[in-house]
Every structure is written in C-alpha cells, then in structure tokens.
Amino acid sequence: MRVLIIGAGPTGLTLALALRHRGIACRLIECRTGPERWSRALGVQARTLEVLDRLGLAERFLAAAHPLEGAAFHLPGRTSGSSAPSAGQEVRLRFQHVHPRFPSMVILPQYETERLLTEAGAAPELGTEFLEMQNGNALLRHQDGRLEWVAADWIAGCDGAHSGLRHSLDLPFPGHRYLQQLVLADLSLEGLDRARMHVFPDSPAPLICFPLPDGHWRTIALLPPDAPPPAQGSLIPFQRPGLTLGEPSWWNLFRISQRQVPRMQIDRRLLLGDAAHIHSPAGGQGMNLGIQDAWSLAAAIAEGPGAVALWAGRRHGLARQVIRATDLMTRMMTARSPLLASLRARVFRLAAGSPPPQHG
C-alpha cells in the first residue's frame, strides 16, 4: 500500500480522493464510528472550490452551500467629540472575485463538507484507531478490539489538533492559547441580511454572524479574558439591538490557540491540516488550508520523495504566514482601547471605500 491516511476530516477525505484521482492506492482510517453533526469550520474559499472542481465536486458544493456577497460591519455609537463612528452605522464590504468561476467564499458546515467528500468515494474505515508507530509500521485497533500492524510507503497524519501521529513522533507543537473564550451557537435569527456575514466588532464581546444554508445562523461571540463563562445555552453573548434570537440547536464554549509543528515531514511520515498547524478562526482559513495541504501533497507523492520534501517546506511556510495574519486579525478584533477601536473603524471604512467622518 502506498499511503495510510489517519483521520477522516476534510483534510484526510480530500487526500484520499486526490490520491485515488492520481491512481495511488491508499487507506483512510477514522477512530469515530459515525459522522459528527456539529462542527466549527464553515467557510469554503474560492481556491478550495478550485481544488474540488479538479475532483469533479465543485458544483455539488455550490449547490449545497450558501454564497456570501460580502461582510457588514456594525459600528457602535460614540460620545460627542470622539473619533469613533456615528451611532448605528453599518459599513458594507463586497468580497472581490479572486476566481473567474467561483465566489470568494461560500458557507457550508464542516459536517456537510465531510458528507459530500465521503459520498464522492473517500471511503473511510470508521471505528479504526491509530495507536502508535514502531519500526516504521503503524499499529491500529479496530472497533472489535482487534489489533493490526500496517506497513505503508507514506503515513499521513490528518488527525487534528490532538494528533496521535504527531504525539507518536514526539514532535512539539509550540504556540500559545488566547486568553479570550469563544461562544458558538447555531440558532434562528431575525434582523440581518442573509447575503452577508455580519460583524459587531466593538461591543464587550465582539460578535460575528454567518448565514447557514438551512436558514439558521452560526453566531460566534469572543468574550474578554476577564468575563465569567456564560451559562450553558445562554444567549446573552449574542444579544444586540434589533436582533431577535431563537433557542440554539447547538451551543459550545471553547478557547482558541495558535500552534505549529517545527516540520511537516519526518522520513515517510507526514503531518497536515490541524495536525500540523492550528490558528484563530479569523479569516476562515483553517479547513481551507488543510484541504489545500492535502491536494498539493497528493501531487507531490505522485512525483516522488524529492517533491514531498519540497511540499513540506512550502506548506510549512504558507501555514506560518496564515498564523501571523490570523493572529493580527484576532488582536485587532479583540483590542479594547479607544484608540484601537477608532483605528479599527477607520480600517473597515477604508476597506469598504467609505471615507472617514469629517470633524469641523
């Protein structure tokens, strides 16, 4: 067997399809026994749609997803004489088309992405867990308790932030955890235009709202470090004037981190996606970065070991750039000083082509 893939999230599923697309034998294992109904990742970007198009899947994704025209920034009121924006102002930003055929971003929950990739023939073996590496071979445990040793030319760890393969390689995962907590909820919501994502940046808990394909919304509130954790299912972090919120069908509280392995390849063992790099969800890069890791790795494996080594260096550098960019966006969103709030408002206006207010 050429490639053993550990982990059947979007990265592992894409790698399996991309390898088979090139006629390369692979085996995809997943410790879960069934699909997950809830997930954090949402945005599918144009470059990812281009990858999916090469696999013959772009039209299926576009049919299932909700397109976004752009973003709306809801800026807060100000007191007389301040340089912050006027009360209730909404600044709209239209996404630029970076691809001649595909929108810049569409919204599709991760579990739907996994469903479409699985239906396309990724064929994960559910209930099969990676345990350890010995002498270059992988030890697997099946759902019935049976153990199996597997030899492969390449072993690819697509098994997420708590990667078993990364731990077995004793690779560090340096970085840091942000002090802020994120509260996520999927719920019905009235009062916002569904053609855009909506950002409320300057409240005590900045809020981002994404329209989902099923008519609901994904709401994400970023709590300040000194805020007490809200009660399970609480809607308080999401409340804003003019919004009507329904009961959440899913609610989750977690912290975010940014981390990266020092290298993505050790001999014939490879790490990609969240197993190799994690970062703030700002900008919606995480799942897209993993899918693009997978597509480019399949091409490198088809070329040979030298191409894989080049892939590992190139993708590591790209991930480092994404981590820096998302960290900057996160710090900008969570900055609480009046000066930075004013700067943030000006940046949003400039991005939307709107001149800053004049003070006479």
UniProtKB/TrEMBL annotation:
Record EC number: 1.14.13.50
Listed InterPro entries: FAD-bd (IPR002938), FAD/NAD-bd_sf (IPR036188), RIFMO-like (IPR050641)
Assigned keywords, A-Z: FAD, Flavoprotein, Monooxygenase, Oxidoreductase
Alphabetical list of PANTHER family matching this protein: BINDING MONOOXYGENASE, PUTATIVE (JCVI)-RELATED, TRK SYSTEM POTASSIUM UPTAKE PROTEIN
Source species taxonomy: Bacteria, Pseudomonadati, Pseudomonadota, Alphaproteobacteria, Acetobacterales
GO MF entry, a single one: pentachlorophenol monooxygenase activity
Group of enzyme by EC: oxidoreductase
Cofactor section: FAD
Family matches, as Gene3D superfamilies: 3.30.70.2450, FAD/NAD(P)-binding domain
Signal peptide span: none
Any matching Pfam family: FAD_binding_3
Domain (FAD-binding) ranges: 2-189, 245-303
Protein name from the UniProt record: Pentachlorophenol 4-monooxygenase
